[in-house]
Amino acid sequence: MNVIEASGLRYAYPDGTLAIDGVDVTIEAGERVALVGPNGAGKSTLLQVLGGLVEPDSGTVRYFEETEDADAVRDRLSVATQDPSDYLFNPTVEEDLAYGPGQLSLPRSEIDRRVDRIAERLDLADLRSKPPFRLSGGEKRRAALASALTVEPDVLLLDEPVSNVDAANRAAIVELLSELSAAGTTLVISTPETELVPRVADRVVLLDGDGIAADGPTREVMTDAALLADCDLRPPQVVRLFADEEPVPLTVEEAKERLRSPDDISDGE
Ligand SMILES: Nc1ncnc2c1ncn2[C@@H]1O[C@H](COP(=O)(O)OP(=O)(O)OP(=O)(O)O)[C@@H](O)[C@H]1O
Ligand SMILES: [Mg+2]
């Protein structure tokens, strides 16, 4: 099933800046898609249009093959925008985390269960009673992500979910996203960081400011140095390091595996 079908999207900001023009993208249920591109390429604008937060000047976005009304699918689709403050407006972190499921009229016990679980996973347990505006940048990012996750949507649209986040929490978020994906959640993740892409996406939609420069498997797009350079991006470090290998490892784990079992050593035993 196509959870999002967008065609002919165009959006110009009120000051006249044309952010996206002629964008077509279809996301199937269960996919992990990264929207990748340099600063100003239109990733955030596209993510907000796909999430129904910004109405395009032209073009359409259809959800779950049944409606063009994003508000009708708010319980099935959640967006975390680039600025975490957009999603943190309650007096405490805990209330922000409970806000989304509260809107779904779930029983209090279920809301508490979700808040407890996500707060624990994203290392927010000690920050629950703090006002969100008193959090650090990375803490705000995690709190905003957590409040999108407590909705437990079928489709998650996340704008730079690990920006400002330290290594341990970044790993926790990547692992949580993998678990959600394994459980069937569709993920659309925007990032300018090519290092992150192989960990969170199987497909890349590459934006270059003029539209979609490429749309294909992560392995193909993330190993095409010339294509990425045209978009002011570079392949992940391991890809550059192992550029002559076939197939090129995309992550440190894949590279370690390659070093452990080089092609020229036969496992003849
Ligand atoms: N509120 C705004 N008003 C006017 N122009 C805007 C506004 N927000 C973004 N833009 C412009 O729209 C274009 C696309 O911006 P967008 O935020 O979608 O890029 P992005 O790919 O998310 O970049 P980044 O990696 O920096 O987050 C840019 O040229 C930007 O300057
Ligand atoms: Mg952005």
From TrEMBL:
From the UniProt annotation, give the residues forming the signal peptide: none
- Name the InterPro entries on file: AAA+_ATPase (IPR003593), ABC_transporter-like_ATP-bd (IPR003439), ABC_transporter-like_CS (IPR017871), ABC_transpr_CbiO/EcfA_su (IPR015856), ECF_ABC_transporter_ATP-bd (IPR050095), P-loop_NTPase (IPR027417)
SMART domains (alphabetical): AAA
Q: Which GO terms describe its cellular component?
A: plasma membrane
Q: Which UniProt keywords apply?
A: ATP-binding, Membrane, Nucleotide-binding, Transport
- UniProt keyword Nucleotide-binding present: yes
Q: Which GO terms describe its molecular function?
A: ATP binding
The way this protein sits in the membrane is described as: Peripheral membrane protein
Q: Where is the ABC transporter domain?
A: 4-234
CDD domains per record: ABC_cobalt_CbiO_domain1 (cd03225)
The record's principal subcellular location, in a coarse class, is membrane
- From which domain of life does this come? Archaea
**Where is the protein localized?**
Cell membrane
Cited function = Probably part of an ABC transporter complex. Responsible for energy coupling to the transport system.
Family, according to the entry, reads as follows: Belongs to the ABC transporter superfamily.
The protein, known as: Energy-coupling factor ABC transporter ATP-binding protein
